[in-house]
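Handout, section B. The chain below has 451 residues.
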Amino acid sequence: MPPNDDTTLSVTELNRRARQALEQDVGDVWVEGELSGVSRPSSGHVYFTLKDERAQLRCALFRTRARFVAAPMRDGDRVKVRGRVSLFEPRGDYQLIAEAVQAAGEGELLAAYERLKAKLDAEGVFANGRTLPYPPRHLLVLSSPTGAAIRDVLAVLAVLAARWPLAQVTLIPVPVQGREAAPAMIAALGLLNRQSALDPARDAILLTRGGGSLEDLWAFNDEHLARAIFHSRLPVMSAVGHEVDVTLADFAADRRAPTPSAAAEQLVPDRRELLQRLTALEHRLSRAQRARLDVEAQRLDHLGARLRHPGEVLAFRRRQLEQLEGRLRRAIRARLETARRHEADLERRLALRSPERRLEQETRRLTLARQRLHQAMPRTLAHQRERLAAVARELQAVSPLAVLGRGYAILENDEGRVIRHATDTRPGERLTARLGEGRLALEVLPGEDAD
C-alpha cells in the first residue's frame, strides 16, 4: 500500500516528537560513568562523552551551569552527572543536557555543595563586584599560622615583599580546616570590618589557604561564611586551594585568585616592572627632550639668521623715513599748487560776478527805468484823468441822485428801508424823504388807498 500523506512525517517532525517523548518520559536523571572527549570551545560550553564498559552517552554542559562545577572534568575521571535526556534535532543526536557534575565517591558533599550554591546564587550573594584597591595600603591576610597553610602564607608574603614592599601586611591567624574554622573566619571578618572604621588604611582582606581534598576545603563552603564575605564593607579576595578548587567563598568574594601566589600577583604591581616602565619612560622622555632641544636649536638658528643688528635696522628705518618725508613734501607741494590753481579760478569767476560790476549794471538799469517813469507818468495821468471823467459821466447818467435832481424823491422808514408801495406804510408812521438836495421828515396821514 502506498503511504498516506497525512501520516507521513518529515525528519524535523520526527526528531521533534522523539525529543518531546524523551524529555517527558525520562526527565531528570543521575548518570554515572567515565569522562571521555572533554571539549571546551570558546563559547564556554563543555561537551563530553559519558561511557561505561558497554555504552556511551553524548553530554552537553552549557556555560551558565559550567561555572558552578567544581570537579576538574578530565578525560578518564569517573563522575556523576545530573541532567535531562533530550535530542539535538538538527543532527538527530541523542544526548544528556547536564545540570551538575560531581566526582564519583563525593556525591553527598557535592550534592550539598550544589544545592547551597544554587540557593546563594538565587539570593544574590555571588553578585559582589567591589573594586579592590590597587595596590592596597594595608592588606589583612586571614589564614592559618601553623601547619601546611603557613607555607602558602609565607609564599604570599614573599611575593608581596618582592613585588611591592610598600604594602603593609598583617596576618590574622584563623583555623582554615575543621568545625571551628568557619565560625573563626566569620568572627575575624566582623572584627576587621569594625576596626576599619578606626583605621581607614586597612583597605583589603585576603582569605587564603593551600589546596586539599573536598573535605579539607569544606569550611570555605559554609553558608554563613559566604554571607559574611558578601556583607563585608572591606573588599575581599579569595585564594583557596589550587586552580581547580572552587569554593562558595570564591563565588561570594569580590575577586578570586586561582592560587595564593596568584592572589599576591593580582593584589600589587611588580615594582621591577614599574621600574622598567619608568626607565623606559625616562628614556622616552630623554629622547623627546633631545629632539625638542634640537628642533628649538634649529629654530633659534633660523631666528638668529633673520635677526639683524639694530644699527642696520635703524639705518633702514631712517632711509624709509627719508623716503616718506620726500613723498610727503612732494604731496604737500602738489596739494598747494592745486589749491593755488583752484583759488585763481575762483578769483576769475568772482571777478566775472563781482558785486561792483553787478551794481553798475543795476544802476544803469535804474537810471533808464527812472527816465522812462518820468516820461510815462504825465501821459499815464492824463489818460487816467480822461478815463475817470468818462466813467463819472456814465455814472452820473445812471445815478439815482441825478433822477432826484429832476424832482423825484426816495422815501425811507425809520429802519432805512425804501418805501415802494403805499401799503408799506401805516398812518402816523414817520418817513424820511430824500431829495436831490437835502432831506425832509414826513408823517403818514390816514386817507384812502390809491390804486
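Note. Residues 11-105 form a domain with the OB fold (Dihydrolipoamide Acetyltransferase, E2P) fold (CATH 2.40.50.140). Compare this with the example in section A.
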